[in-house]
């Protein structure tokens, strides 16, 4: 990190997608994307997609006159967040299957809920079980 009296004015971040783990290859197909004018030592890169597993990053410091050398490139993995929906606890209008979720405006589960209520196994009148929740 630069000292408080450092001459660093801003940073430039470059990144690109790659299919390879580890340091960048000599010949990469993807061009470097550039983010200029970063004032702090932290930056959040948004808009990344999980269509490729790895990304290369490099950064350099700049003062008002000249830019420094790039850092050694770092390769990071962009992992996807995996989750599942539970068909037994989801909203009554959602139809959840193995690999799909579908909105059913007619409330396909309403008949099931009413049948369970008749058997004494349905919802209680508490706000926690309200359909509006």
Automatic annotation (TrEMBL):
Alphabetical list of SUPFAM superfamilies matching this protein: Fibronectin type III (SSF49265)
MF (Gene Ontology): microtubule binding
GO biological process: regulation of cell division; regulation of mitotic spindle organization
GO cellular component: microtubule
PROSITE patterns: FN3
Listed Gene3D superfamilies: Immunoglobulins
Bias type Basic and acidic residues, positions: 111-122
Domain Fibronectin type-III, first and last residues per copy: 1-81
Region (Disordered): 110-133
CDD domains attached to this UniProt entry: FN3
Protein name as catalogued: FSD1 protein
Native source species: Hemiprocne comata
């Amino acid at each position: 990190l630069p000292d408080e009296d450092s001459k660093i004015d801003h940073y430039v971040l470059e990144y690109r997608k790659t299919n390879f783990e580890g340091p960048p290859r000599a010949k990469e197909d993807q061009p470097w994307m550039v983010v200029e004018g970063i004032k702090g030592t932290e930056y959040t890169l948004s808009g990344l997609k999980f269509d490729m597993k790895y990304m290369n990053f490099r950064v350099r410091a700049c003062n008002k006159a000249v830019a420094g050398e790039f850092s050694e490139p770092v390769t990071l993995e962009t992992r996807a967040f995996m989750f599942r929906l539970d068909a037994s606890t989801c909203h009554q209008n959602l139809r959840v299957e193995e690999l799909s979720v579908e909105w059913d405006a007619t409330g396909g589960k309403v008949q099931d809920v009413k049948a369970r209520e008749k058997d004494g196994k349905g919802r209680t009148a508490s706000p926690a079980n309200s359909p509006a929740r």
